[in-house]
Write a structure and sequence with these properties.
mainly alpha, ABC transporter involved in vitamin B12 uptake, BtuC, two-stranded antiparallel sheet, 2 strands, 3% strand
Amino acid sequence: MNAPIHTPRETPPTSQVPDPQRLTRGYWYWRAKRQRWSLLIEKRALVVNTVLLMVLVLCSLASLAFGTLSIPMPDVLLTLQGEGTSMHTFVIEELRWPRLLAGGLAGAAFALAGCLMQTLARNRLATPGIIGIDNAATAFAVASVVGTGISLAPPAMALTGAAVATALAFGLAGATGTRGYRFIIAGLAIGAISGALTQVMLSSVALDDANAAYPWTVGSLNARAPNSVHALTIGLAVSYVLSLFLNRALATLQLPEAVTTSLGTHPGRVRLMGLILSVLLTGLAVSVAGPVGLIALLAPELARTVSRPGSIPLTASFLAGAILMVVSDLAGRLVLAPLEIPVGIVTALAGSPYLLWILLRKSPDINR
């Protein structure tokens, strides 16, 4: 009996075998080349960021139009061009535009800080609000407002508080650094202590001083100071540019330590730089809007959902944070108008169920 003849599986010619690198580049990126320089532009990121920017513009126009006095959208556009009535000009330029600018900048700063912190810790729960940076910055800022003998301005005090909280959390975490639950638990304890100190200070001062410091404790855009907004604008611009330069190094941190080092990345330096940027962004944002910490949790998660898997969505988080802050502030002004709900309370009501959903439904690990 003749044995069956087995023919080898037919393989396609070499010219028909797809080049993985070419396919990956063509699928994910556009390549722009000029002489010796080339630039890879991620397609999905460009589309996502463009859409988020358009949504931010629409939400900003809605924030300028709606309130106790509603202004038709055509009149809003005319006012922005310098052709509005005196009433509309006063309402938009003196009341709503400064508030919109402060809210958008603070939301972007909180979100960018949250994205950096989550990436460094590889944990969705590792945000400035969760690990106590917000509360510590608030406690130090309140100390400068209620007349405790400290002469530093609230922005400087908020930065100091954020730096102190980060240093304590990092020191208590020991060898784990920003990784692991020990860092988060240490931050939770620091946040609780800072919150208690804030309440002690408010309860031990005159009623007028306590009322002046109250917006700092709940998160509000009513207590914004022009100097704080200017400092936040400069700090956010610098931090955003630096974070973009860190993007590739941050992506390599998701790999094992040996692989990261072999790729030429210094993990310790990258983590230190990321922590410094997170502290700077959080302190400046708290000095403007108070502790609106859940923006740092919600915005990066939203950005990560619509971005390419495995990427570090810094720009998308930046834009999503601004959108969430603007929308939350608008909702706080409209829901119980003419009464106003502080933006920190609105984000807490919206973000707390989502935080529970993350804990119950999803792994906190950022890579899962």
